[in-house]
Write a sequence for this structure.
């Protein structure tokens, strides 16, 4: 029996989110409310695909389609919104033997590709899977190019002393050290999100780099997903805003999504923020801290000092001849 692919819509929001909650490979961005915000922010059409084996759901794949005339491109996650990964999230695979699991997985991927071709026939497809999706072979078997990428994940399943002892000496010193400044870290709301994203935008501008994620998009996610999922951690120094990090969280993982711009002070703001985020998550029983990205050599030097484990995720692409580079195609469509 083949895997049948259904397209959900807003009326299926609760059913989709139940599937997200059941999948060990989902992220907060897989939730239907987040997908709607991202579709609006990226100017794309959302295709939330669900695979069924009979009556049993076997996987989700949300795809965002950009079209201009006869040319369409499909993305998961959508481009230009600083989302590292989305892609497939499988369900009900835990009890399957390897051969049956691989056959079902392959048919799910094939079914999604066929449904996407029938709906919009994209000339270019890019998928970035999450770090919990560990088998991209079905895409490779369907003529997609699969390229590894990396992130860092800190294990929070320990006590605070064990965790801090695993850090580098400078991280331990920064976290345990004292300062004459009055430093406070707390979780804010919409105003804090705006301060954090504005600071990151200004940092990119000074470096001559683009940064197209807006405070409005992040506050929309905050409003739709709620304050228990989206947390803007803010550090003030002597009462003034020093820096911050916007995190996203599900039942098992907290993600260091945006923020952490280099502070203009000698106070180790980012070390203190990361330590506070980790201990706060530990108190809630959250098991791991995804530092979201280990591909930039300059940033790896900072993130690696928290003794994370290196995790793989995958960039998965397919392009028809003559479509050129992704950047050129994206500009053409937009």
């Amino acid at each position: 029996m083949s895997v049948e692919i259904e397209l959900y819509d807003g009326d299926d929001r609760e059913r989709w989110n139940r599937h997200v909650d059941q999948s060990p490979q989902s992220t907060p961005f897989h939730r239907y409310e987040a997908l709607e915000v991202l579709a609006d922010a990226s100017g794309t059409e959302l295709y939330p695909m669900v695979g069924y084996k009979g009556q049993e759901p076997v996987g989700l794949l949300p795809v965002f389609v950009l079209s201009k005339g006869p040319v369409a491109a499909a993305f998961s996650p959508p481009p230009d919104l600083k989302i590292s990964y989305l892609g497939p999230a499988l369900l009900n695979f835990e009890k399957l033997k390897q051969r049956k699991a691989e056959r079902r997985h392959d048919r799910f991927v094939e079914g999604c590709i066929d449904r996407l071709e029938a709906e919009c026939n994209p000339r270019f497809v890019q998928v970035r899977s999450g770090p919990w999706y560990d088998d991209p072979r079905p895409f490779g078997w369907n003529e997609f190019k699969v390229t590894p990428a990396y992130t860092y994940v800190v294990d929070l399943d320990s006590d605070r002393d064990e965790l801090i002892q695993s850090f580098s000496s400078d991280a331990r010193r920064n976290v345990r050290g004292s300062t004459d400044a009055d430093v406070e870290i707390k979780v804010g709301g919409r105003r804090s999100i705006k301060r954090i994203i504005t600071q990151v935008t200004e940092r990119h501008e000074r470096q001559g780099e683009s940064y197209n994620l807006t405070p409005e998009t992040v506050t929309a996610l905050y409003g739709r997903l709620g304050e228990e999922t989206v947390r803007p951690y803010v550090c003030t120094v002597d009462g003034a805003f020093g820096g911050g990090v916007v995190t996203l969280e599900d039942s098992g993982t907290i993600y260091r999504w945006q923020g952490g711009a280099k502070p203009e002070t000698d106070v180790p703001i980012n070390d203190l923020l990361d330590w506070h985020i980790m201990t706060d998550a530990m108190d809630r029983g959250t098991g791991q801290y995804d530092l979201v990205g280990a591909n930039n050599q300059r940033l790896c030097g900072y993130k690696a000092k928290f003794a994370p484990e290196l995790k793989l995720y995958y960039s998965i692409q397919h392009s028809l001849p003559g479509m050129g580079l992704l950047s050129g195609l994206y500009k053409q469509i937009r």
